[in-house]
Amino acid sequence: MTISIDFVRKRAEADAKTYGYYLTPQPDLLQMFLEGLKTNEERYGYPSCPCRLATGNLEIDRDIICPCDYRDPDVAQYGACYCRLYVNKTVYETQNLPEVPERRPSEKISRAYNLPVPTEAAPQQTQGAPEKPQLERPKSVVKKKLWYCKQCGYVVFREDPPYVCPICKAKREMFAEIETKIEYSG
User: Fold this and answer.
1) Among 18, 58, 81, 185, who pairs with 74 as Cys (CB 3.0-4.6 Å)?
2) Per-residue pLDDT tens for 112-135?
3) DSSP H or E run through 155
4) In this structure, what DSSP letter does residue 98 have?
């Protein structure tokens, strides 16, 4: 699948305009982000965030499909998203791009990099030796759940609820899990 930079730019601009955001005011940086989105979409079939490592597994990468789940809370708190592709009006006008800390949970980052994650250390017999955390490979199984927004009724089937409802902009706390039970008769 081949897509054009112009298509990627128009999609990002339309999304930014819908939510009252702007694209980064620095032309070279913007071009780099758009090329990254284009490359990721051609590589994986979806536009994963250009500043994070994607796995190619849609279920693992779902939270970093641009615009990622973390964009809205980042822009609200810092004036820009983590990679600074999307910015608010003040940042756009001043061209002063803020430092934005990574909001993606470390478990998801570890899973993307296929790194071990620390677990609680077992008690050690040697006195005086510092405890070392045991490392465990992250499981690549994603346990999806049904979540609904209690404010507007939006339903999504994924590992965690989004940080912000894409429909009504309710915060993550407004999402509740829908528990299902399947009974077989026969």
Assistant:
1) 81
2) 777 665 555 444 444 555 555 554
3) strand 155-158
4) P
Decide which of 61, 78, 94 is a domain's last residue. Answer: 94
Q: List C-alpha distances in Å: 148 to 4, 30, 85.
A: 35, 34, 28
Cα(85)–Cα(139) distance, integer angstroms: 31
| Segment holding 10, helix H or strand E | helix 5-18
CB-CB contact of 51 with 97 (8 Å): no
Please check whether residues 79 and 17 belong to one and the same domain. yes
Domain, as residue range, for 25: 5-94
pTM: 0.71
Structural domains of the chain, count:
2
| DSSP secondary structure of 26-48 | -HHHHHHHHHHHHHHHHHHSS-B
Q: Any idea what the CATH number is for the domain that residue 163 is in? A: 2.20.28.10
